[in-house]
Design brief:
Length: 105
């Protein structure tokens, strides 16, 4: 995870975590919100691994998902970038980058 500093520059690798078995690691992180999260992204089977397919996401209640998950509930205000790489047998087969801005309400 990268963190944006007060000058607008990214501090890369501010936080790092390597998780084998992406699906089961995410399932642990999501805790009680795993089933509603999967339903919200159009996946009915809650077992790992998630099978390839076309999923139509009806949406989910983000407040409920965050409340019921094991994601930290307190986070410092700021802008963060999460980079994820998916590998199998040391070969990358996917990646994604998510930017999150945490603001005071």
């Amino acid at each position: 995870m990268a963190e944006k500093d007060s000058f607008g520059r990214w501090k890369e690798n501010a936080y790092m975590q390597k998780s084998p078995n992406a699906c089961s690691s995410l399932k642990t992180l999501m805790g009680k919100s795993w089933t509603p999260f999967l339903s919200g992204v159009g996946i009915q089977d809650t077992n790992c691994p998630i099978l390839p397919g076309i999923y139509i996401a009806p949406g989910f209640d983000l407040v409920l998902i965050l409340k019921e998950s094991n994601i930290p509930k307190i986070f410092a205000y700021g802008t963060y970038k999460i980079n994820m790489w998916y590998t199998k047998k040391n070969e990358m087969f996917g990646c994604q980058s998510i930017v999150i801005e945490v603001k005071r309400s």
